[in-house]
Write a structure and sequence with these properties.
The chain is α+β, with helices and mostly antiparallel strands. Among the domains are: about 100-210, TolB, C-terminal domain (Neuraminidase, 6 Propeller), CATH 2.120.10.30; about 335-585, Alpha/Beta hydrolase fold, catalytic domain (Rossmann fold). It has an eight-stranded mixed sheet with strand order 28-29-31-30-32-33-34-35, sandwiched between helices. A four-stranded antiparallel sheet has the order 1-2-3-4, with no helix packed on it. Helix 3 (about 420-435) crosses helix 4 and helix 5 runs antiparallel to helix 6. The longest helix is centred in the C-terminal third of the chain and has 18 residues, at about 570-585.
Length: about 575
């Protein structure tokens, strides 16, 4: 090993900034693996940790009227989130929910901060209902019985209504308006993709990101809930608008565009020129949050070599408010690359080369495949990727067909019967990588997580001669058993992407890698958490049993208190060392 993987376990990161009511303090999440709630005094730079859970804090939302904070935690990554209320001036948080078998998906504060609304699958694990809860006394009621995945977007100012989203799958969402008096919900507009849905301050229209009407990319729009009419506020040619925040007091609008993975932040008057904040390092911007007076914007920025840090924009200039301690060794940047695949489609990806001198035959390389499949590898900070680079491995991170960020048609181009076309994209990426002058074409491995784990196993069963070693984190073995064993609330949503087990049985038999493990001719490392609610651990157990039965080389690591990911410091330490040892031995 060239560098100890331990160096990458404790790197901290920030998320979810929220200003205090006086604008002097920035509440946020901070930590390495198990982030907690912190406060940051913007004048002095003094920071204070406010929560001390042995679990990850998943989100943070401040009251619209005071400094009370609502946040969520689960148990060991099981995603059955509970809600807690924290007054920063008190010592202990108060539980708002206490049913560890139920997912509580926080939605919104009411404008008077007396109520909250959230979705929970208490009635039926497969379906979410909408609850409204009084903060004084804790009384709650079920306001709406939903079907499948329902989430709460916002209370309507001045009216007893909620905006909801019904998510049936990528690009197939409905916007609902729920009357809290009658309990009736009506559909607004047409099915589409919706994100970041909020009411305008007057409560007459909704502001949201959507690909309506029939657009390839997400645009910031204004929607009239009475007529369904929609007007574009801001669109960027060939790019998704992926985040926005409007400061009601100053009418300043911040938007973030996705430019091939890089973020483009614009800030300015909603109805005027909004220049790019161009002094920022190139990376990924997230978690926009305006100060109460509307003059200062907080956000999180990460780059390939800088962990997510807190930034402040004010009066046209941006500066860092808090950043993690620098890594103890040099880190590698990434380069945006692309290659043509079997049908002439351009496939984008990111190439990172290690800091070490190039060996005579070139660097060994690893292709890292993201999950999803509706996801996108971005130029943000990945301690696991930097760990591989520090061991001397080059890393290619493709965004094969099915990835988001490149238009709706690209995202849908791997659906159902076209599933293995994305695996062919990996093969052409491997050919591009092998031809790179810095790479040893004979020493190329592959790894991925979740759906990316399926892609890894498909790559080494469909094209077994191309790879020297493979790592699969909690990947899909069989689409039939996946859909039978995944969390009931996810089953129909995933079937909309993958297909129906009954109608698509022949397709599932063809594309599920478990049916072709005899083709595997490389060593495989498989890792899985026992509490994974998305891809049950039985998927990995199938692989291990089938490989061992055929006397194929396989190593298997399990994590007893982990869900869909290895986030606890001890777990990260263990998996980083195992992966580094595995690829060092086999590449």
């Amino acid at each position: 090993m060239l560098h100890d993987p331990e160096a990458f376990v404790s790197i901290s990161a920030a998320a979810a900034p929220a200003f205090s009511r006086d604008g002097q303090t920035l509440f946020h999440l901070r930590g390495s693996g198990l982030p907690q709630v912190w406060s940051l005094d913007l004048a002095s730079g003094d920071a204070k940790q406010l929560t001390f859970h042995e679990e990850k804090v998943a989100f943070l939302r401040r009251s619209p009227l005071d400094d009370r904070l609502i946040y969520g935690i689960d148990r060991g990554g099981d995603e059955r989130q509970q809600l807690l209320l924290l007054d920063p001036g008190s010592a202990e948080p108060s539980p708002l929910s206490d049913n560890p078998g139920v997912i509580h998906d926080f939605g919104a504060w009411s404008s008077d901060a007396t109520r909250i609304a959230y979705a929970a699958n208490e009635r039926d694990e497969a379906h979410f209902d909408v609850y409204v809860q009084e903060l004084a006394g804790g009384a709650r009621r079920c306001a709406y019985q939903g079907s499948q995945l329902i989430s709460v977007s916002a209370f309507r100012p001045g009216r007893n209504e909620l905006a909801l989203l019904h998510d049936r799958g990528f690009g197939d969402m409905s916007l609902l308006l729920l009357d809290l008096g009658s309990g009736e919900a009506r559909v607004v507009g047409s099915p589409a993709q919706f994100k970041s849905v909020r009411w305008a301050s007057d409560g007459n229209t909704l502001l949201l990101l959507t690909d309506l009407p029939d657009n390839e990319f997400l645009q910031l729009c204004r929607l009239d809930p009475s007529s369904g009419d929609i007007a574009i506020i801001y669109a960027a040619t060939g790019r998704d608008i992926e985040a926005w925040a409007l400061a009601a007091e100053s009418n300043l609008l911040a938007t973030v565009e996705n430019d091939c993975g890089y973020s483009v932040l614009r800030v300015g008057p909603m109805d005027g020129e909004r220049p790019v904040v161009d002094e920022l390092p190139r990376g990924v911007v997230a978690d926009l949050s305006w100060s109460p007076d509307g003059n200062t914007l907080a956000f999180v920025l990460a780059t390939p070599t800088d962990p997510p840090s807190l930034w402040i924009w004010c009066d046209g200039a941006a500066e860092i408010a808090w950043r993690a301690d620098p890594a103890p060794l040099p880190l590698s940047d990434v380069e945006l690359v692309e290659w043509k695949t079997f049908d002439g489609t351009d496939i984008p990806g990111w190439l990172a080369l290690p800091q070490h001198p190039r060996p005579e035959n070139g660097h060994p390389a690893i292709m890292w495949v993201h999950g999803g499949p509706v996801g996108q590898t971005r130029p943000n900070f990945r301690p696991d990727i930097q760990m591989l680079l520090a061991q001397g491995f080059a890393v290619l991170m493709p965004n094969v067909r099915g990835s988001s960020g490149y238009g709706r048609a690209y995202t849908a181009s791997d659906d159902v019967e076209r599933r293995l076309d994305s695996v062919a994209d990996l093969v052409h990426g491997r050919a591009w990588l092998a031809a790179h002058p810095a790479i040893d074409r004979e020493r190329i491995g592959i790894m991925g997580q979740s759906y990316g784990g399926f892609m890894v196993m498909s790559a080494i069963t469909e094209y077994p001669d191309l790879w020297r070693a493979a790592v699969n984190y909690y990947g899909i073995a069989d689409f039939v058993t996946l859909l039978a064993g995944t969390g009931p609330w996810r089953r129909n949503h995933r079937a909309a992407e993958y297909g129906d087990p009954e109608h698509d049985a022949a397709l599932f038999a063809r594309i599920s890698p478990i049916h072709r493990v005899e083709q595997i001719d490389v060593p495989v490392l498989i890792a899985h958490g026992s509490r994974d609610p998305r891809v049950p651990i039985t998927e990995s157990e199938q692989y291990v049993a089938a490989l061992r039965e055929r006397q194929k080389p396989v190593s298997y690591i399990t994590f007893d208190y982990a869900g869909h990911g290895f986030i606890r410091p001890d777990d990260r330490r263990r998996i980083y060392c195992a992966v580094a040892d595995f690829f060092t031995a086999h590449l």
